[in-house]
Amino acid sequence: MAINAGGNGPQASINVTPMIDVLLVLLIIFMAVAPVRQMGLETVIPQSAAPARPEPPESPVVLTIARDGSFALNTERVEADRLSGRLKEIFAGRGQRVLFVRAAGELEFQSVAAAIDKTRDANVTTVALMPR
Predict the structure, then answer these.
(1) What is the pTM of this model?
(2) What is the DSSP string of the chain?
(3) Which of 4, 55, 67, 87 satisfies CB 3.0 to 4.6 Å to 122 for a cystine?
């Protein structure tokens, strides 16, 4: 709505309300039609024949140090000079390189530390001390 300050003659301004109405109707039509149109190719995802079975977990390796200073890996007795080589053999095919150490309560920590030092050559990443 325009104000005419000079007189009562006809005004030359455009009424935009009908154009906005037409624009809104066209916008609604295009919005309704756009999702109906599909583009792309139909695809089928291949299905696997059998589900993959998880590998069984590896059994833990426990180094037991007896009162007399003898060693045992799980249930196998091992000589002190053969301990490093046997650990290399065990951990060669394993993903997790964790060694649990269980020692007799009467042992001094120095003898336990000496046994742990022998595990360095076997590339053991984690040494866990087990409680009594």
Answers:
(1) 0.56
(2) ----SS-SS-------HHHHHHHHHHHHHHHHHGGG---S----PPPPSSPPPPPPPPPPEEEEE-TTS-EEETTEEE-GGGHHHHHHHHHTT-S--EEEEEE-TTS-HHHHHHHHHTTGGGT--EEEEPP-
(3) 87
Q: Which domains does the chain have, with CATH numbers?
A: 61-129 (3.30.420.270)
pLDDT band at 21 (very low <50, low <70, confident <90, very high): very high
